[in-house]
Amino acid sequence: MNWIISEKFIRYSDGKAIVLANIGMDSTADLPETNAFEGRLLEKGSVAHDIDTGDCYCLNSSGVWKKQRTAGGGGIVPTFSTIQTAATRSMAVVGDLVITEEE
Q1: HEC string of the chain?
Q2: pTM surpassing 0.70?
């Protein structure tokens, strides 16, 4: 099972709201597709939290969930300010840290 904990509206596209979402899920088997929530499409940078393990996943620009490395084994909840920054650039979010890839 998965659910939206919180979301930030970005824009509309083809009658659906594009949202930056903070998602809770029971296990990694519940990682949602980008169109899993009715009337919404998940924006890159959305974050999913595995309640069972404490792992955190971020949605990349290809629509693939990527597990994030966290110091201390999890429990870090990214803030919308860091998620929004990551959604507009090529970055990863870990807690309140934004990590860029070197080019």
Answers
A1: CEEEEEEEEEEEECCEEEEEEEEEECCHHHCCCCCCCCCEEECCCCEEEECCCCCEEEECCCCCEEECCCCCCCCCCCCHHHHHHHHHCCEEEECCEEEECCC
A2: no
